[in-house]
Amino acid sequence: xxxxxxxxxxxxxxxxxxxLGFPLIVTQPTMxxxxxxxxxxxxxxxxxxxxxxxxxxxxxxxxxxxGIGAYTSSVLAAKFGLSPWLGMLAGGAIASGFALLxxxxxxxxxxxxxxxxxxxxxxxxxxxxxxWDYVEGAIGIYLPMTNxxxxxxxxxxxKTPYFYIALGLLLLSLLVSRILQKSYIGYYFxxxxxxxxxxxxxxxxxxxYKLVAIAASAFLTAMGGTLYAQKELFIDPGSVLAGSLSxxxxxxxxxxxxxxxxxxxxxxxxxxxxxxxxxxxFGSTGMGTDMIIYGGIIVIIAMFSPGGIAGLLGExxxxxxxxxxxxYTPPGDGI
Amino acid sequence: xxxxxxxMLAQTIVSGLxxxxxxxxxxxxxxxxxxxxxxxxxxxxxxxxxxxxxxxWGASLFFLDPLFTLPLTALMxxxxxxxxxxxxxxxxxxxxxxxxxxxxxxxxxxxxGLAQFLWKPDHRTVPHALVEGKITLFGLQLGTPQLTASLGxxxxxxxxxxxxxxxxxxxxxxxxxxxxxxxxxxxxxxxRMFALAWGIGAAxxxxxxxxxxxxxxxxPEVGADFILVAFVVxxxxxxxxxxxxFWAGIIVGEVEVLxxxxxxxxxxxxxxxxxxxxxxxxxxxxxxxxx
Amino acid sequence: xxxxxxxxxxxxxxxxxxxxxxxxxxxRAEDEIRIGAIYPLTGxxxxxxxxxxxxxxxxxxxxxxxxxxxxxLAAGAGMPNLKGAKIKLIFGDHQGNPQVGATEAERLxxxxxxxxxxxxxxxxxxxxxxxVAERYGVPFLNASSSSTPLTERGFKWFxxxxxxxxxxxxNFYDFLKAVEQKKGVQLRKLALFNENTLWGGExxxxxxxxxxxxxxxxxxxxxxxxxxxxxxxxxxxxxxADPQVLMQSSYLGDAILSMKTYxxxxxxxxxxxxxxxxxxxxxxxxxxGKDGNFVLSREVWALDLADRNPLIKQVNDLMKGRNGxxxxxxxxxxxxxxxxxxxxxxxxxxxxPEAIRKALQETNIPADQIIMPWKGIKFDEKGQNSLGxxxxxxxxxxxxxxxxxxxxxxxxxxxxxxxxxxx
Lengths: 335, 291, 423
What we know:
The complex is a heterotrimer. Chain A is an all-alpha fold.
């Protein structure tokens, strides 16, 4: 283990400890909420990254999995009184099933075509849910605020539990991501992404591994959807199935660095920070200034750091190693 | 439906055709940019919005009808397109597809914010447009602004097709879109071609905006209503195919209107998207796209 | 060079974060009473949101006596019980997004230390933002979201001044029956044409239910996708259904597009009965001009009621002077909402949330101290104003004229809706 790797490990551990202790040190609810938003966004980015980054299948329709998660747990809770914890698993399972169903035909498509197909599927599902009376259609579902506590995953007094659930989900997603990346499946992912034709000629069943990726990605994304429903206690198609949400999920990973383990976490941190601060500072004027700055920053980052923030850091790392005459790290191996 | 008549059906088909032609005009710009340089432009709806505002200000400040200022609007949007290419797109040509999406998406938000900042978030309409009212033809009612707009769309799309296939510059542009490297070897300056594609693409959206401005409300977010449908048309017609986008625009317009009429308006977007999905799955290169 | 740019970019980002952190902790004056107001200030509804902001600011200026106001407006009294303290409105932008609404509510409560909240126009955003207020125990006054379940949630801190959809829809049917009697016509065959979000979905549900109960038939029911590029298929279906009354719920953009499509396709049912929102937005008539005429709309307010209530003209003149637009049903309700909050805070004589909540509960503002045509403002145990009423207005000569209830009407209803050709 060289010095840089050691530093990185220590840094990682420090970040984890700070994260675990965060709500104990910072009690300001806005900051806790801000942190929850970052964790939730990061979790979605990491989940998206399994499919979009590792397996190289860019989805612009992830809101559909998110929505399935939110709707499944909410319908089960509102109509059958089922615990959202079980609802979360049920939502994940249904989302995975749906993912396999759409993955099977769509994985034949390449690049833009796959992205467009996912965009269309998500939009179709949004229309169908909007007109589906059983799940309250356009009206949306209210979840009761009563029964605060861990059993019902509703916390009215303090948001700290939401923080830990979001953190737990993020760690779970990182773990799944890591396991997939390090296992033999991860090697196949890289093969699929970098040279699909060669991979196919080696007899790798591309479709099967892509299906693993989309199922895992959908499951985790749906879990995030359940957390959203339990946190806001109201869902409607516009808030959990919107096309803009799909794009935001992809943006988080892209901004941070696609195909890196922690890239989406960094991306979430930066994107949510920009979003929240520009709105808080400039949004109240009603002049559109917040959008100008938010959009401007995105353009600038895309222009000057096309590999995302992780790409930038990776570049610095390589430069540092080169100066130190240390081992060369191939690009895309994460920060 | 108690009073379904043949006139009603014919009327629906004609209305679908008219809106479909507008979709086509918006989409040809998008497909041109995509065809030449493989970039999906999320900010295309905002070019449309800028075209609408240019017409609006021409009409309310200088009392010039959008139809008179149309060439000027097209020129202005051409300049905007070239500018966007020079300032932003040129730098991300080699970047992965994802960061390109990211850049144009950021631009979309930026332009919407800018429009709200400069012109307020109000809904506006062009005052005293030259074309107003409607004409009745064989019992069919055709709004004059809609009719003018769809005729304009046919002319512009046809003109663009002629330019790409029958002029030197246009053929050079087409050559770049088919094989960039070969075109460069033939002495075509691909940088210039890219800028040209962005200019023409934006100008098409601008013209669509000018034509729409006579009957569609103008506001900073107006592009959002059209962008998804424009993507659908581009894919359906085949990425990069102007003729394909033209026919696909009409098909989308018809499916939307007829589907809405027979199946139910709530599902009209879902129907269009389902068709889109089917085409993607069974004929991914679209109606007339290059294989 | 490239690297320099990147460094600069990241540096700028850091500065932004630091600056905002600094802003969040800025010191504030002691003698101001901070009220949070959450509206859609960017996004598709920004036009409406900015107008609501202006109305709220006008109300605050009157309470603070920056503008002298003659008459006995509830808000005109200022804050004598708090030694003439000033209220300060802190605005939040919810962008039409329920999660952003909740985030803004929490920020305003915990960072800006507002003593009460007002908002949010969109019913679905009001739903999430008011939950935050409920969690923190901060009064939330809702002035203009009409979704009925909002006051059925058993919240302790939620108050709504405006009547809700149940009442509005009931009004529709009362109105139709009254017109049937007065004009000797039949208005039993309905077409429902509502947009597909919370508001339109819920309105449809209530309309269908009451139609059955009261002996009306629904010939066509369309929940259309909001923000459409065209409405041809919708209008064709409506034409095919050939209704006696078209009942429509649309926000601004759709309201404008639908009227243009009616004109284009020559659709003119005997009665077009709209559900406020887009049809009472100031930009509706500014955009459509005479093509906006003859639509009937349920309303909570109309300028022509000034003959009966002089306060209306006075307040409207102020709005017109400051912002160049007349008040409308949306902005008048927000104006009234801020006034009601100010009245309660003054009576509470304190900025303690519990004291304000108690004062709100005891609110009893008589009809002649508000600019709404209501019997007054008094909240029931659910926090719903029990004295609110709806009116029906009709656009005549590009002006909103009150046509129902008949006893306060300023104009007779034009029936039927004239064919487009003869206009």
